[in-house]
Request: fold
Amino acid sequence: MSELYNKGKNANKIKFQVQKLSTNQKNSVLLKVAENLIKNSNYILKSNSIDIHEARKQGLKDSLLDRLLLTEDRISSMASGLTKIASLNDPIGEVLFMKQRPNGLRIGKKRVPIGVIGIIYESRPNVTIDAFGLCFKAGNAVILRGGKEAINSNIALMNIVQNSLEEMNLPIEIAQIVEDTSRESAYELMKMNEFLDVLIPRGGAELIKSVVENSTVPVIETGIGNCHIYVDKTADFDMAMKIVENAKTSRTGVCNACEKLLVHQDIAQEFLPVMLERLKLKNVEIRADLTTKTIYGNVTIADESDWHTEYLDLIIGVKVVKDINEAIDHITTYGTGHSEAIITEDYTNAERFLNEVDAAAVYVNASTRFTDGEEFGFGAEIGISTQKLHARGPMGLEELTSTKYVIYGNGQIR
Amino acid sequence: MSELYNKGKNANKIKFQVQKLSTNQKNSVLLKVAENLIKNSNYILKSNSIDIHEARKQGLKDSLLDRLLLTEDRISSMASGLTKIASLNDPIGEVLFMKQRPNGLRIGKKRVPIGVIGIIYESRPNVTIDAFGLCFKAGNAVILRGGKEAINSNIALMNIVQNSLEEMNLPIEIAQIVEDTSRESAYELMKMNEFLDVLIPRGGAELIKSVVENSTVPVIETGIGNCHIYVDKTADFDMAMKIVENAKTSRTGVCNACEKLLVHQDIAQEFLPVMLERLKLKNVEIRADLTTKTIYGNVTIADESDWHTEYLDLIIGVKVVKDINEAIDHITTYGTGHSEAIITEDYTNAERFLNEVDAAAVYVNASTRFTDGEEFGFGAEIGISTQKLHARGPMGLEELTSTKYVIYGNGQIR
Reply:
């Protein structure tokens, strides 16, 4: 039997033990792991340096090296992440409703863990700790399969988690890392319906696409964000400029960053030159339609592929539209269902945009950058779902749970 | 382009029109279709008779012929099903919560349609009307792919639906039937991620397995029910017998019927002879473990495959267990996560069973037969989910919806 088969089988075997843990027990584990991460930071940094050394030899890009790198600071931020998770409300056991039927049956809908959660991710070792913390707090066992670049860091982190579980007399199979980082092990995970209740990919577009296309285990698709801001005819210019600048430049590599700017034709002449000048000062490259070029001059003309692209970089696509209809149509055609915003003072247009734009989060007069578990008040997030089943938008602890019906009778038959 | 590709594309194109319909508009359509079903019952019966004729020629079993058969009564029950759906609350637009964040952002979570729903089913033509009614009331477009045996009936029913939509000046692509009933068209539907938001299989174990294994479109798995009743040491015998008899014999071909009886060893000697005699009087075949045979005598010995089987017939598997632990272990090993019941007067055992049995619906002192959308008070159901994501247990209108976050700002940036 393969490594993965055994890990799946073992996780499945002990999942009911996780489900029975009290909130206090779970919080103690989280705090213990946090403590042990700090205590063992030398061991973690040493393991990480092997990965970094290897990655340099392979000639990995600086941005990838940075994702892979662990520091004292990053370790303590993983630890404080766990402390934060310990402080969050435990979703398990919540009764969503309980009602009495005419025949006297009392039917309750209760929040329960999902069971065994698989996470496939890339080179960020902090995902190992974050994902464990969230899945575990929600009463689940977890199987983590990170990228091969981070394998030594991930094994070190998982050793600390498993030692902490052992210290608390709990089965180490609550959290497991897949040591075989071959492509085959990823595919095996995607087909492990027997043991896995859900698979969550965290990473770039390629990874997510591959999981969606190949997995027979139910998937929660996360995070491609080709996010638009539409500046309507009645927009407050000052507000619009602040929001666009913020959404484009405050952090570029994130899925809630603004990638496209749509501007109503009646204000384009006045709005665009100032707006684009401001973006250029922030080193944003502008790829625009012909009308924008006519108005503003010095920009690259966008091609069809630009309208589809999530740049994750200091680049923005700009287009002048006839009206809100064209804006909504454009977003429907090119959007990825992540976060979309309108800047307007017009009541009817604000409501139309909220109703008719089909995305996880739709904004009036605010930056798309708020689509985030912390910002939404969930305390933490495992990712942002852009699919429509089970969870849509930022996923906190509740989204890592299922429900069951509990029915109290006194002899009812049908 | 294939028939299916065009239908998918067209459904996707008009899905926003369905989402914008008011509750009144949707109810008018449902009532219009109900009216037109009755008006055109001759046409429906004539089309159905072609399917029946063909099925007889192919030598289909009587039980299958009965599923396929339409009568005046069955047509009027389809029509009254739609009237019922029209009377249910519209889930769309409900705001699940709306909260104000410290920065003044107001974040609301709102119920919205899923989009385009695909249904794959077998030979019951009434599914065509039921599934259309429920998906449409929840604001979705629907693509229906029934079995080849029912194709003439299904086309007739869909003509009536589409004519009704036309009468109300709505796009007929709101509901479409797949006319190509080849195996290839089913596979094409399972891979149509571009246009389809979810695929729901309704039918037997084979069909569901094939959809789960092959679909890249998100699936909601429905209904295999290898349901157990565990009669605990402290059970009220009279209640236990009534419930077991009801759950096994009131209707055998349904997924919430009892398939297995587990009995505590301390009461087996007294309970089983009376219980099994009662089941035999109802023509139930008994397949039992050795202990039961020793106590009761004349029964077939069950083999390993019996414990896994959903009989859907007048057959029951019977096993004597040491205690509640063995009962829960047995259910964990062989159950399908549908409906499980304990009959007990013991408080602690009742609570343990409710907490530790991992199924969509867990009962104390009631028949498993209540796992049903109507019985749960949902008014109607599209199926019973045995998976843990998105929906678990009977799925009513709410389970055919998604959510979106609507965010009201006044210039917030991050």
In short: The mean pLDDT of chain B is 95. The radius of gyration of chain B is 24 Å. Residues 3-221+388-408 of chain B form a domain with the Aldehyde Dehydrogenase; Chain A, domain 1 fold (CATH 3.40.605.10).
